[in-house]
Specification:
With 380 residues, the protein is an alpha/beta fold. It contains 14 helices and 8 strands. The N and C termini lie far apart (53 Å). It has 2 domains: 49 residues, no CATH class; 244 residues, Neutral Protease Domain 2 (Neutral Protease, domain 2, Orthogonal Bundle). Strands 1, 2, 3 and 4 form a 4-stranded antiparallel sheet that branches. The chain is globular.
Length: 380
């Protein structure tokens, strides 16, 4: 009797999976209640919150269950026991297995969970060129194509936050960048410096509340040996994400101020998002960027607590990227963005962090240090 009840329950669950949605669902269209799922056109759609709106995500294909096997009557008078039937795990369940705030895990599982939760939040992105672009004529057409593709996609992902305010400057030399910015009455970096956010010796990438500068001087200098690696490819989305941080949390305060957001989070989250977009647009892979910035970064051969990556003498980018993955995999991308939103509303980073994540900042630092061995930081 127990066996027949168990099989009936399994068949019932399979039949429920096949129930059609009551109305056609389209990715990106509005829905009414967050978390509700609908099946339409062979896909399962989830109602998610994107900015201030509730919309259907891009959906996941629903596989039809295999037809149940009917056992033939046994010739013997005594029934032969049949092995119990257990449903196999779905591909999504078997692919990503990460427990929030886990201390031991497979690094790839944490990364995949973070990327999946980011994609779930963003849903179907409509690229937008609602930003101003001042571009050096020396930028080649092929470079302009992929760079503007990244800018359009990232701007579209946060169009409700950025609202078309961002000014982007894209140059090949520091002299051009300085001249272009001065001619528009715009500047970023040291107001008294000869070049915007640079001493003129290397590439320069930086952002202010409504401005982004990218000067690819290394790539474009004569007889250059530099190449478009994953790090340089990520810079358009990396810098636009800084605009998102400013839009949600306001201009970052100086160290020591209650609202100051530490550099490991400011730069690490932008690093994470930059490589996420590189992967999303198939310009390179997320793991390629992670290997360079996190796994094989010589800056992390010696173990230094995350809390100390908060000055300009340290490299907060890679370790902050790993910390951002850990946060997003544990709390989701919307709550991750809320760290900046609530820091602004609470007027205090520690309180804003607690409100967004559900744990104390000190507890997070402790959890991270216990878990960092699983993250392959400096030992990939």
């Amino acid at each position: 009797m127990k066996k027949s009840v168990r099989v009936s329950a399994i068949l019932l669950s399979l039949s429920l999976i096949q129930l059609p949605a009551t109305a056609a669902v389209k990715a990106g269209s509005t829905c009414t209640k967050q978390g509700v799922k609908e099946i339409s056109g062979g896909k399962s759609f989830t109602c998610i919150k994107k900015g201030k709106k509730l919309v259907w995500n891009k959906g996941v294909a629903v596989k039809k269950p295999a037809a149940p096997v009917v056992a033939l009557p046994q010739p013997s008078a005594s029934p032969v026991p049949q092995p119990s039937v257990e449903p196999s795990p779905s591909p999504a369940t078997s692919k990503i297995s990460f427990t929030p705030w886990a201390s031991t895990f497979v690094a790839e599982d944490m990364v995949e969970a973070a990327l999946a939760k980011t994609s779930e939040y963003l849903g179907s992105v409509k690229p937008s060129n609602a930003y101003s672009l001042t571009i050096d004529p020396a930028i080649t057409p092929s470079d302009r194509e992929w760079i503007t593709k990244m800018l359009d996609y990232t701007n579209g992902a946060f169009s409700d936050v950025l609202q078309g305010r961002v000014k982007v400057f894209l140059g090949t030399t520091h002299e051009w960048s300085a001249s272009a910015m001065r001619s528009t009455g715009t500047w970023v970096g040291d107001p008294g410096g000869p070049f915007p956010c640079s001493d003129g010796s290397r590439d320069a990438y930086c952002a202010g509340p409504d401005v982004v500068l990218m000067t690819y001087s290394d790539i474009y200098k004569p007889n250059s040996n530099y190449r478009w690696d994953a790090g340089r490819r990520s810079t358009p989305a990396h810098e636009i994400f800084h605009n998102v941080q400013f839009a949600l949390g306001g201009r970052n305060q100086a160290p020591g101020h209650p609202s100051y957001v530490p550099r490991w989070l400011m730069e690490g989250s932008a690093n994470y998002f930059g490589f996420y977009i590189v992967d999303k647009l198939a310009l390179d892979t997320y793991q390629t960027g992670r290997r360079q910035q996190v796994n094989t970064n010589p800056a992390y051969r010696n173990v230094v607590p995350l809390v100390q990556y908060d000055d300009f003498n340290s490299d907060p980018y890679g370790i902050g990227q790993a910390a951002s993955e850990y946060l997003i995999a544990s709390i989701g991308f919307e709550n991750f963005l809320n760290i900046w939103k609530f820091t602004k509303s609470e007027g205090n980073f520690v309180q804003g962090f607690r409100k967004a994540t559900g744990i104390e900042l000190s507890d997070f630092y402790s959890k991270f240090e216990v878990a960092r061995g699983s993250m392959k930081i400096g030992n990939g």
